[in-house]
Each structure stands twice: as C-alpha cells, then as structure tokens.
Design brief:
The structure holds 2 protein chains of 2 kinds.
Chain A lengths: L23 H9 L2 H24 L3 H17 L1 H14 L3 E5 L2 H15 L3 E4 L3 H5 L2 H7 L3 E4 L2 H8 L16 H11 L11 H18 L2 E4 L3 E3 L4 E6 L3 H7 L3 E7 L3 E2 L5 H12 L7 E5 L10 E7 L3 H5 L15 H5 L1 H6 L10 H12 L18 H5 L6 H16 L8 H13 L2 H8 L2 H8 L4 E2 L7 H4 L4 E2 L6 H8 L19 H7 L1
Parallel strand pairs in A: 1-10, 2-3, 2-4, 4-7, 5-8, 7-10
Antiparallel strand pairs in A: 5-6, 6-9, 11-12
Chain B lengths: L2 H12 L21 H14 L3 E5 L4 H8 L6 E4 L20 E4 L7 H5 L3 E4 L3 E3 L4 E4 L16 E7 L3 E2 L2 H6 L7 E4 L4 E2 L7 E2 L6 E7 L1
Parallel strand pairs in B: 1-12, 2-3, 2-4, 4-7, 5-8, 7-12
Antiparallel strand pairs in B: 5-6, 6-9, 10-11
Classes of the chains: A alpha/beta, B alpha/beta.
Chain lengths: ~525, ~210
C-alpha cells in the first residue's frame, strides 16, 4: 500500500446543487399533495419502463452487455488516475485544452473566465447534469453571461424558472397545457394562437432557438463518455440541439465528471448499446456526436474540457459506495422506483433524484451535509433499480450501507442514548437467549390489554409511533408460538412430528380469524 | 498545489485499498452473421420505424433517385468529395447544377449560407442494421459536420457493403478520432408528455438511399 505523506486524509466533499434542503419525508409529503404531478409522473415512468423492457428483451445478449459494462466501469475506478492522464495526453495532443476543477466553485470560475476571454456574453447549452450540479447557469448570470438551454425540456424548465424533476426528461412533471402557457408567457416571439399540440410546441421551440444556434459563438456541454485511449468525447442526444452546439460555435467548453471515462474505443460498443435502450427505451438515440480535441476545418477550433471532481474522489474513497460512480445517467432506476414514481424528482433536493440520487448525493457531499442523511431511507429496498441498472450498480446494498454510515455518524453525538439505541439494546438482550425471550413473551397479555376490545393497537408511544401513524397493529396472541409448540409437543414421542390423530382445539384467536 | 495534482492525489488516496481491475467479460455478440439481403431488410425496417424515408436501389439508379428527391429543393449542398456520378441525374445543362452549392475545406460555406440551403446530399461511412444507425465520419464524400446538420432535408446514400449487422462490427470499421456523427432517424423529441415528435433542430426530413 502506498502512503501519501503530507496529504489530507479527509475526503474532499462536493458542493453546488447536491443537497436536500429539507428531509426527504417532509419534501415527499409536500410533493405528494400535487395530484397533477403524480398523474404526469405515473404516466411517464410507466411509458418509459414499458418501452425499455421491449427493446431490452430484443437483445439476446443484454445480460452479457451488463456484465461487460459493470466490469469496464469497475476497472475505470481501479485505474482512474492512469486513465485520466492517458485521456489528457491524447485530447491535448489534438489541440484540446484540459482544465481541472476541485469543486463546483472552481469549475464555474473556469467556465466564466473562458467565456470572458472570447468577449461574448451569451452561450448556448447542451443539456448536462454536471453543469446543473455545479449551478453553472446561475453563476454565469451573476457574471453577466446569459446561458440558453437548448434541449426542449431544459428550455421549458428554464423559461418557467423551475427545477428539473427527472434527469432524462426534466419537464416530465408538466403537461402540454402548462408548457403552452409557459411559452406564451416567457417567449416574446411566441404565436399568440399557439396550441398545446406537442408538434406545434416543438416547432415553436425550433423557431425560438434557431437564430441562437446560427449566431452563437460559444457553447457549453456535458459529455456522456470520454475515451482514454483515443482522447475522444461523446454526447448522446435526440433533438439535434447537441449537434448544433457542438458543431457551429467557434468555442466549445465541456464540463465532465472525472468518472465518465472509458478505457478504450472498443468499450464504446458496450455503452452505446446499454445507454439508449436503458434511457429512452430506443434501439438507438437519434444523434450521437464524437470529437477528439480540435477537428481541423470542422466545428469549434477552440475546444476546452473541464474535469470535475466535486466530491467524486470522496465517493471513490468509500469502498462499498464507489460503484455509484459507475452511473451513466440513463434514469432507468427512476422509472422503476415506486418511491420516485410517487414523489417525483424535486423531493430529493439534489440534481440527482431517484434511487441513484439517494446514494450518489450523500456520497458526494458526505452523509452529514444538510438533510442528505435522509436520502438513503427514501426507498423500500425492493431492488427494482438494481435489476434495471445497465451497469448493475447494487443500489439497495449501498442504501443499506449508507444508512449504517448515517447511524454511525450520529453515534456519540448525543449525551443521552436515543430511543432507537435503547430499543436495539433491549432487543439484543432479549434475542440473545431463549430464556430471556421467554421472559419477554410473558408480557404478551399486556399487549392484549393495550389493544382493548377492538383488538387493535392504534398508537404506539415514542419512535414506534411512526409505525402506527398509518397502520394498526393487531393484538398479540394470548400465547407465543414457542409456548404453543412446547404445549403441543409435551407428550408427543418425536418432537416436530405432529401426531396425525391429534387435532388441536382452535384457540379463541383462530375462531375470530374465521369469522 | 495545482488542481490537477490535488485531484489526482485525492483519487490515489481514495484508492489506497488498491481495488483490482477485473478482467472484462466480452461474451456479448461480436458479429451478427447476417447476409446482405437480411442486413438490408433489417436496416430498412429500423429506418422506417424512425420515420425516415428509405429506398433500396441498384447502384446505377442512385443518380435518378437523388434527382427525384431534390425536385422540390431550390438549392442543395454537396461535399466536394461526393461521388460525382451520383449527381449525374442533375445534369449540367438544366437547372440541376445551378442549384448546387459545393462545400470544400478551401471554401467552406458560412453558417448563414447553409441556413438558406434546402437540402444536402452525402455518403456515409458505415451503417448498423440492428439499430438503424448511419455513421458519418467526415470523410470526403460526407464533408464537415455542419453541412449535414443545418439544411432541413438530408439525403444520405448507404452502400450495401457498408452495412454492418450490429454496433460492435460497425465501430470496428471506423477511426474514433475522426469527427463522428451517428444518426438514427430524423431529429426527435419526447419531452412533452413523452409523445414522440419527429423533427426538432436537426434535419426534419431524412431520406436514405441504400445502393446495392
């Protein structure tokens, strides 16, 4: 093992739009009150998940592709420093310029400075999670630079001064009428007779952005993949706004997380099969653009890449959690999640919602940051996300791991033991021997007493009250199973083999159940 | 310490448990084993599914097909290196050649100039039957990326010999360091209630001519 002398051992956590500002239960409670949101989301998640299932079933080697994708990403994490250096060498050799950013602030500064150097005050943007994570648009605005989102959904969200609610279809919480109203209100050039027909709305966006595309001098993008052995960047998209931004301006600035690397050109064949099918449920997305530094005579001649850490190295330091960095942002986990489907993306606070967000956000920021410790509990641990993940990130395992990190991080911070501590101690004592458990079971009649004549316990005290908040507990039986077993088998010759001639008298509870 | 050194050191510190890089299991399909007819049939099926127009013609009929597709275009652009024979149907005598704009590395058209042009004719590097994907790599018969992007109608010729069955076969045939565009149908969006709308910012009309 190598030791790095003089290096801070503390992980360097990320900043920017990665935080739940309130606890997940509080935010979820509020979001659940929005019936329109739930209707839109239910429709959207079910439609995409059905499409995904159909195109995934077509491939005879889907599981082999997932295995390859998972192993490739695992090897990327294990050899990340070498791959970053290899990518840098190849990208730079072809005229690209690489910048490194420790955190959101540094990345924003770099981009703003690069834009200032061009003398421009406007940039066109391709949809990018990394730039949302660092809050680039807001920062550029403070610096007097206007950023125009060009993806249709991002445009809708930006015009409405709203936040994205899904990483693939950020405006999925809005229906067509809401979108028409936003266009009429916020687009100065919109036709007052605009209808809410989706093709009509898409054409309005085309008209609105066309002039921008044709005259923009600077574009800002993210990247889906960076190939180390060739120095190539890739953007996967549908509308052609990506091609416009990546091809027509003179300057292109890309912001990308350091984990997005693929070791070899060959690896692209795996990920370009996994991503479109998992993401939009298509066999292939309409457009994918690839560029390697500056392409002479073709496209931007001033090409930059900002490599962003912003907590990724901290996530990498968590041996159990580091596979969260395998994520290729397809959103398949969101579309199958029973929690996300109901609460929507805003409830998670962070740029990254849904199951992957529930692990990625606290890994990037540290579990103690703001309310991010509530995110790993935003799951029923059903495992649907793990099954859907194209790179096989074991999200349920990492959720459980992060819950333990959360509990450990709070241990010893309070002078008095919490109710949970006391409860767990008591359970540990009671469950460690049969005699002790028998003793506790003697208390069952007390529970029956508490249940009262309707034989239901409707309110438990203390933290156990969380359980009874939305459900009743049936009265405990008059005797424990172990007591019953002992009585039944007291005289039997061979324990465990019920006497065929013996039928037990139904207890009062059994009779009640039959009524 | 520079941000670069700082980040690389952070990563090395994070990897102090020395995780092993696993062997990559590449047991997925490397080839489809399909014959030419099967490849063409599958590619056509996929392209039609994406709402592209497709015609399968003999190589000798490509010029006539291009000429008929360009009938409504007031102007069209071609890359300098386009197979000259493909434009034989446009005639140098009639209006065909006066409607033509040629983009070359020496004399590239401006973006504004391209915006006024109705259609573009290009070749292609390789196609993927299974996914209905056409890959352009900026070779002479395809030209630079802007010409196949700004005009609203893209006419793209795919030679039967350039059709691969599945993506791994196709990517093996091209050089990743070229300016690459992978096209699977006309531009599209599903951002409004997930209803697919064809034609947003990229060419709204894609005509594919498959030449046997």
């Amino acid at each position: 093992m190598t030791t790095f002398l003089g290096m801070p051992a503390l992980p360097a956590y990320g900043s920017g739009n990665l935080f739940a500002g309130e606890t997940f239960p509080a935010a979820a409670h509020r979001e659940l009150g929005n019936a329109q949101l739930r209707a839109n989301l239910g429709h959207a998640t079910h439609t995409i998940r059905d499409k995904r299932q159909a195109v995934v079933s077509e491939l005879p080697d889907w599981e082999q592709l997932r295995d390859a994708g998972s192993a490739i990403k695992e090897s990327v994490m294990a050899t990340l420093p070498e791959l970053l250096e290899e990518f840098e060498k190849n990208f730079t050799a072809r005229g690209g310029v690489i910048h490194w950013a420790r955190d959101a602030r540094e990345a924003n500064d770099i981009v703003a400075e690069l834009v200032r150097e061009t003398g421009e005050t406007e940039v066109v943007k391709v949809k990018s999670m990394a730039t949302q994570e660092i809050g680039l648009n807001e920062y550029l605005e403070e610096q007097g630079i206007q950023a125009f989102e060009t993806d249709l959904a991002e445009l809708i969200v930006q015009l409405d001064h709203d936040k994205p609610s899904h990483i693939l279809v950020p405006a999925i919480h809005k229906n067509r009428t809401e979108i028409r109203d936003i266009f009429l209100r916020e687009m100065p050039d919109a036709d007052p007779a605009l209808t809410d027909d989706p093709p009509v709305l898409a054409m309005a966006a085309r008209e609105h952005l066309r002039r921008k595309f044709l005259t923009a001098k600077v574009a800002v993008s993210g990247a889906n993949f960076a190939i180390a052995d060739s120095g190539t960047l890739a953007v996967v998209e549908s509308e052609g706004n990506g091609r416009m931004c990546l091809t027509l301006p003179e300057t292109l600035i890309t912001v990308m997380g350091i984990e997005k690397l693929l070791p070899t050109w060959q690896d692209l064949e795996v990920f370009m099969q996994l991503l479109p099918r998992s993401s939009t449920g298509e066999r292939m997305n309409p457009y994918t653009s690839l560029w390697t530094g500056v392409m002479e005579g073709d496209g931007p001649q001033n090409v930059h890449l900002v490599l962003l850490d912003n907590g990724r190295s901290a996530a990498l330091a968590d041996g159990m959690g580091r596979s969260a960095l395998h994520c290729i942002r397809c959103s398949a986990c969101m579309n199958v999640c029973p929690v996300y489907e109901r609460t929507g993306g805003h409830a998670y606070g962070s740029t990254y919602p849904g199951p992957i967000g529930a692990i990625l956000s606290p890994l990037l920021t540290g579990i103690q940051a703001e309310e991010n410790s509530s995110l790993p509990y935003a799951s029923s641990l059903c495992g649907a996300c793990y099954d859907a993940c194209p790179v096989k990130i074991n999200i349920p395992d990492i959720l459980v791991h992060l819950r333990s990190v959360d509990v450990d991080s709070k241990r010893g911070t309070k002078k008095l033991p919490s109710q949970m501590d006391v409860g767990m101690k008591a359970a540990s004592w009671a469950l460690s021997s049969g005699k002790r458990l028998g003793l506790v079971e003697k208390g069952l009649p007390l529970g029956r007493l508490a249940a009262g004549p309707d034989r239901k316990i409707t309110r438990l005290p203390g933290i156990a009250g969380g359980w009874t908040q939305s459900r009743d507990i049936p009265a405990p039986p008059a005797q424990s199973f172990r007591d019953w077993w002992a009585k039944e088998h007291r005289d039997a010759g061979s324990p465990g083999q019920p006497d065929p001639g013996h039928s037990h008298e139904p207890s009062r509870d059994d009779k009640e159940a039959q009524q | 310490m520079s941000a670069r050194e700082d980040i690389l050191t952070r990563i090395r510190t994070a990897l102090q448990d020395s995780p092993e890089a696993p062997q990559i299991p590449r047991e997925y399909r490397a080839a489809s084993g399909m014959g030419t007819d099967e490849l063409i049939e599958l590619l056509v099926d996929r392209l039609v599914d994406y709402k592209a127009q497709v015609a399968v013609v003999q190589e000798s009929d490509v010029p006539a097909r291009i000429a008929s597709l360009l009938e409504g275009a007031k102007t069209y652009v071609v890359p300098e290196g386009l197979d000259a024979g493909w434009l034989a149907g446009m005639g140098d005598d009639g209006t065909g050649s006066s409607r033509r704009r040629t983009d070359s590395p020496a004399e590239p058209l401006s973006v504004a100039g391209l915006d006024g042009i109705d259609a573009v004719v290009t070749g292609s590097a390789v196609a993927v039957a299974e996914t209905g994907t056409i890959i352009l790599d900026g070779s002479a018969n395809q030209g630079r990326r802007a010409i196949s992007l700004v005009p609203d109608h893209h006419i793209c010729v795919v030679k039967a010999a350039d059709i691969a069955g599945i993506l791994p076969e196709a990517l093996r045939r091209i050089d990743g360091t070229r300016p690459i565009t992978m096209i699977s149908g006309p531009s599209a969006t599903s951002d409004i209630e997930l209803e697919r709308v064809e034609g947003v910012h990229g060419p709204r009309r894609l005509d594919v001519i498959i030449a046997r």
